[in-house]
Amino acid sequence: MGHLQLPPGKKIAVNLGTDFDAQCLWLGGFNKPSPSYMSRGEYGAEVGVPRLLELYRRFDVKSTFFTPGHSVDTFPERCREIADDGHEFGHHGYFHENPTLISRDTEKRLIDLAFKTYKNVLGIRPTGYRSPYWDYSENTLDLIEEFGFDYDTSLMGRDVVPYRPRRWEINWETGNRAGKASKVLEIPVNWYLDDFPPLGYVTGGQTGMQDSDTIYKRWKDIFDYAYDRVPNPVYATCVHPQIIGQPHHMMWYERLVEYIAGKEGVWFATCAEIAACWVDDDRDRELMNAEDIRGVSPKPADYPIA
Question: Taking every annotated instance into account, which residue ranges of this chain make up the domain NodB homology (predicted)?
Fold first, then answer.
């Protein structure tokens, strides 16, 4: 497998990623268009983002804001502030749609719709993609290749090193078979480094509200493992302004940023900058030219799970 060729003097690449989902999180993610949920998305834009931008300025952090087109259309001035501070925008769908629930044509249409918004409002074309649901349909990898993305950050086949994601043939009663690798680089995500599962409250569903000191320790431990034990690692996190922007969450997050910034050889970088440092090896090139094996076999008829 290839490796990151980090800048001279740097030991670890750190992307403090932000998913600026705003109100559309509650639309495409939960089908909750009520005033209360819309106000939570508004809070993310009007309170959370400014707090994050101030923190990142203080520690000279450049990051990537994965922002659905809907958030750009709804809060254009806030997005311009993000751009003015030098942060990267990553593609994050249009209304935080779930790719596994929609057709190929719909998925492609929404990717293109978001591209049009990025161009019309911000004058940019993002080079990286993050699935709104951190999941793929059977068409997603083909589509992000077709749209010419340089990198993706939606999958979990590694934790603190990038890789070239592979298609798979999924079988129930024989082993799965790996197919060809993608030319799109994967900067892996990690549910353990996402603030929403432990801290985001959803009525009647996700409890959230876990102890913030526990989350701080978990994120610090993962950073320390990568820093101390893995050559040329990447530490990529994900926060949501409407979650992390809460005062008590900003306190532990600021402690984490301060801790990371105090370590020698830390490189705060955008995902695009990190992807540009990737160097393929012969094995990567071999896998990118491997047989195109893919698909999911039918579930055995005598297995009862729906």
Answer: 35-228
* Distance of alpha carbon 202 from alpha carbon 40, whole angstroms: 11
**Residue 130 DSSP one-character state:** -
Which residue in the block uniquely carries the two structure tokens 């999911």?
Answer: 296
If you count them, how many residues does the chain have? 306
Q: Is 101 left (phi over 0), alpha (psi -120 to 50) or beta?
A: alpha
CA–CA separation, 99 vs 106, rounded Å? 9
| Alpha helix ranges (H) inside 118-233 | 140-146, 196-199, 212-229
> Are the C-beta atoms of residues 193 and 306 closer than 8 Å to each other?
no
Q: In 75-146, which residue ranges form alpha helices assigned H by DSSP?
A: 76-84, 104-117, 140-146
The three-state secondary structure class of 54 is helix
Q: To which H or E segment does residue 247 belong?
A: helix 247-261
Q: What is the pLDDT of residues 28-41, one digit of tens each?
A: 999 999 999 999 99
Between the CA of residue 124 and those of 9, 91, 264, what are the distances in Å? 31, 11, 33
- Relative to beta strand 3-4, strand 278-279 is antiparallel
For 156-212, write each residue's pLDDT tens digit: 999 999 999 999 999 999 999 999 999 999 999 999 999 999 999 998 777 788 999
**Tokens at 295, concatenated:** 């698909």
The confidence score (pLDDT) of residue 207 equals 73
CB atoms within 10 A of CB 25: 27
